[in-house]
Amino acid sequence: MANRSQIQARAAMMRVRFEAAGAQVVDPPLLQPADTLLDLYGEDIRARAYVTSDALRGEQMLRPDFTMPVVQMHMSDGAEPARYTYSGEVFRRQEHDPDRPNEYIQVGYEVFDRNDPAGADAEVFSLFALQLRGLPLRAATGDIGILTAAVAGLRTTDRRKAALMRHLWRPRRFRVLLDRFAGRKPGPEGRVSLLDADNVLDIDVPMIGKRRLSEIEARIEALRADRDTSPISDTELAGLETLLNVRETMPFALEQLRDVAVDLPQITPALDRLEARVASLQARGVNVDRLDFEAAYGRTSMEYYDGFVFGFYAEGRPDLPPIATGGRYDALTRQLGNGAEIPAVGGVLRPDLMLEIEEDAQ
Description:
Shape: globular
Low-confidence stretches: none
CATH superfamily of the domain at 1-120 and 129-136 and 346-362: Bira Bifunctional Protein, Domain 2
Mean pLDDT: 87
Helix content: 40-55%
CATH topology of the domain at 1-120 and 129-136 and 346-362: BirA Bifunctional Protein, domain 2
Number of helices: 14
Strand content: 15-25%
């Protein structure tokens, strides 16, 4: 097992390589304002982060990742285009998996460039592949933007599309909603009698919480409107199911997705971006004919990414988390930039896991 000094030495070497690619070194504070992280991740972050309080600065969290503070820094006063690199500790509570470390070092590289997003995607991926060259890893890629485009273009109500978007990161819940909106499954037990009642308050339903009567009535009317909405068509549903099951090498995946676009034409612009990315990766020497693409990749662990996503995995060590992950997060720059935005892509590597895999290979 590598010791801390070995991990730090490897991290420093990797950061120097990113500097050679044009990145500026940044070092965000260990303590981050909790309100920003809560706005970004929701209350769920409390189960994964270490929270403390300060009499002057309020609630704080030990840095759970680097992306948020780097984006904030850039949106505040960064030049364009910009490239950043960093290395340092992040802190994650591991109450459900005590064998995983709750403090470890990340090395990262972030690109903010509005001129050539496909080229920036290829730049980040190829630099990561170079850092990991020689290790027995499998690279996986995907594109969250294709699925979000498919959902956004469904011929159904905005309320239904918003519900599907909200649960995009929870595949089981997303599937339940999709089946319900397509008329394949009934709604929750008891909802039919509730919606058929002339006066909701006349039926035996417990009053829980602090919602006012007007809020309850508005919710009931919204549910009734949803009940009377036509189901998502079989054609669109089949297209979504086919899309989610695409798992091929990049060129064949693109070909399959072009076929899906016959039934879901709203994904065509996202596929054009994927095609440009494939060309940019090829131009940087990446063998796309052997690069895996999974249309559903990233849905369970990459909540702020909204486009290209990637990860590197040690198939011989399924017990290990990803050695490196990254992707595009354009929407995050808008969320943290008070309306301003810039296309951005980046990722992080785990030098400790790299050293562990190297030891296994000896």
